[in-house]
Design goal:
- The complex is a heterodimer of chains A (390) and B (219).
- Chain A is built from 17 helices and no strands.
- By secondary structure, chain A is an all-alpha fold.
- Among the domains of chain A are: 34 residues, no CATH class; 126 residues, no CATH class.
- Chain B has a two-stranded antiparallel sheet.
- Chain B is mainly α.
- Helices cover 62% and strands 2% of the residues of chain B.
- The two termini of chain B are 27 Å apart.
- At the A-B interface, helix 6, helix 7 and helix 8 of A face helix 10 of B.
């Protein structure tokens, strides 16, 4: 550690003003702050110190994502060996998943951070830690079979069009990770729907088992093949086909615990998303005309990316509503729209991504009206008080 | 702009008249600077061929409409000028539509209603109102063609990228080699959808402002 610090100190002058590598100062600075706490101190005025900064906030989310990621890796291996009818132990299943998932994560981080560094150098601002989370979220919301170049392209698109054109971290309207998924979904639909959820390329001497189907429970529901639907317990635990990180509701709940305990994720949003989903699910139960409408409302919470979206995507502090009341409206509508898209629109079996992106766009409007309503209420109170006084 | 009939005769291609032609291509571009005519950019740029036909149609309609209105400018009563302009544009659009139907029927089918909608293209109305009504025929013609060309190059640029990345073809001919597809390359289906046209125009605007810093509006 000490040696590393000395090395950084030794090469620092070259990056500072007047140095040979002045242009790359931002790159150097990013690595320095990532490895150690930056040496900059506030120079004047009184200020309150708190250990929580962006680096730490983002790191809490990364920690919260760990259960989901590890479970996702195991599930990739489990689904693969299930599909080819081989019985192997837990470690082998996990290792198989690790080998398949790690390249996706590396590519996502490399391409996204490359864009971030280029923009930081051109615009001469600090490299933010914002992408640490997005870079991990992107591989978790796509199928394991997605080609690597597509992941890179989608990440670059999301970082440039979703974030940098609006001014970088904290200024984006849409959630970058979901934007990357939406880009893949519309650009390469055949890679993001159908039989893509399980890694089925087999080696010599192996074959897929008879009657194997790689469809997700949501796809089964959309096509009405209810007899193949996994049990509620399986869907809750998560050993079902799906995007890498989204299948297990248990792992997502563990992550939610971390987010809520550290105060990074908003409990209001999580709960209202769930409430919105349940409400709409029950509403459809009343007027059920097809099997998708008849399923118990709580099924919607454990199916597909509902839990993952509610905990990790909807609560993104930048793109969600900022006001307290606004969060209730925002979360509830996400739940409602998700189930609405799932059940009513046969073209999209999953609605979480579209619902969150849609509400991301509306979040500033919701905030505006909440703030206006509050201002009006207080103005009225003031007027009433003045009348009484006079 | 005031009517300058009393000024002495200017050369046909004086620097002043060339400016009328060149300005709308760059720093006064109807699409990237004035943000007009966006709807047709979204609708007909899926292929380069349709973009090209549309671009030529608009150049023709706009050039002639400006000349005709400029010739009539002293006889048009101000209170009914809009309806006169519409009649002129509509007649020209019908002519263009008939020519398209006769010679490039398939493109005409693809453009469908958007040829007719040239009538409502705000760029044309805007130039007639702002320029042709108060200028001589020759400058009006240059202004019309210049603005139409400014519209056209953006249209062609968007059409080029959308067809190349969305379908792997240009003017209907495959340009992305098969070997790339065998290596796992896929056409980007998002480029065919309208949102991507908007984003492409956005990127063009971005590059344009990056090169011409005067256009950046910080207000």
């Amino acid at each position: 550690m000490k040696a590393l610090h000395n090395l950084l100190e030794k090469i620092k002058p070259q990056f500072e003003k007047g140095g040979r590598l002045e242009k790359f100062y931002r790159t150097f600075e990013a690595f320095e702050t990532f490895l150690f706490v930056g040496g900059n101190v506030t120079k004047r005025g009184s200020h309150i110190r708190d250990a929580i900064d962006m680096k730490r906030t983002m790191f809490h989310v990364v920690i919260a994502l760990m259960p989901v990621m590890l479970f996702g890796m195991w599930n990739v291996g489990y689904q693969h060996y299930n599909a080819i009818g081989l019985e192997v132990d837990l470690i082998d299943q996990f290792l198989f998943g690790l080998i398949r998932v790690l390249p996706l994560i590396v590519v996502s981080y490399a391409s996204g951070l490359a864009v971030e560094f280029i923009f930081a150098t051109i615009r001469d601002h600090e490299v933010n830690e914002g992408f640490l989370v997005s870079g991990l979220l992107i591989p978790l919301v796509i199928p394991v079979t997605t080609p690597l170049w597509m992941v890179a392209l989608a990440t670059i698109f999301a970082v440039i069009i979703g974030k940098e054109v609006f001014g970088g971290t904290g200024m984006n309207i849409l959630n970058p990770a979901l934007l990357a998924r939406a880009f893949l979904f519309f650009a390469y639909p055949s890679y993001l729907s159908g039989e893509v959820w399980i890694y089925t390329q087999v080696q010599e001497g192996q074959a897929l088992v008879d009657g194997f189907s790689g469809a997700t429970p949501l796809a089964l529901l959309a096509s009405g093949e209810l007899q193949y639907l996994p049990s509620a317990m399986e869907m809750f635990l998560g050993n079902i086909p799906g995007s890498i990180g989204e299948t297990s509701t248990v792992a997502v709940l563990l992550g939610a615990l971390v987010l809520v305990a550290t105060g990074v994720g908003s409990l209001r949003i999580m709960l209202t998303v769930v409430a919105g989903g349940l409400f709409t699910g029950l509403l459809f139960n009343l007027f059920a005309t097809n099997p998708f409408m008849e399923i118990p409302a709580y099924y919607h919470l454990i199916l597909g990316g509902f839990a993952f979206g509610a905990v990790f995507m909807a609560t993104d502090p930048v793109t969600a509503s900022q006001t307290g009341t606004g969060k209730y409206i925002y979360g509830f509508l996400i739940g409602v729209i998700t189930v609405l898209i799932r059940v009513v629109n046969p073209a999209y079996p999953e609605g979480m991504m579209l619902a969150i992106l849609f509400m991301n766009v509306f979040a500033p409007l919701i905030d505006h009206y909440v703030v206006q309503a509050n201002a009006k209420r207080r103005l009225r109170r003031l007027k009433n008080a003045q009348v009484k006084l006079s | 702009m005031s009517d300058n009939t009393n000024q002495k005769k200017e050369a046909l291609f004086s620097p002043k008249s060339m400016k009328l032609l060149a300005n709308p291509m760059g720093k006064d571009n109807p699409i990237t600077v004035q943000v007009l005519g966006i709807c047709s950019v979204l609708a007909i740029t899926v292929q380069l061929r349709t973009s090209l036909v549309m671009a030529i149609s608009v150049v023709v309609v706009m050039g002639f409409a400006n000349v005709i209105i400029s010739l009539l400018r002293k006889t048009i009563p101000p209170r009914i000028r809009i309806i006169v302009m519409l009649t002129v544009i509509a007649s020209l659009v019908i002519l263009v539509d008939q020519v398209l139907k006769a010679f490039v029927y398939d493109v005409s089918r693809q453009l469908s209603v958007f040829v007719g909608l040239i009538i409502t293209n705000c760029i044309i109305m805007g130039r007639l109102e702002a320029f042709a009504l108060s200028n001589k025929p020759w400058p009006s013609f240059l202004d019309g063609v210049g603005n139409a060309a400014g519209y056209a190059w953006v249209l062609l640029a968007v059409g080029f990228f959308r067809e190349l990345l969305g379908s792997g073809t240009l003017m209907g001919y495959q340009v992305i080699p098969n070997i790339l597809y065998e290596l796992g390359y896929e056409n980007n289906g998002f480029m065919i959808l309208p949102p991507m046209a908007l984003i492409t125009v956005g990127i063009i605007i971005w590059i344009h402002r990056y090169r011409d810093r005067d256009l950046i509006d910080i207000s």
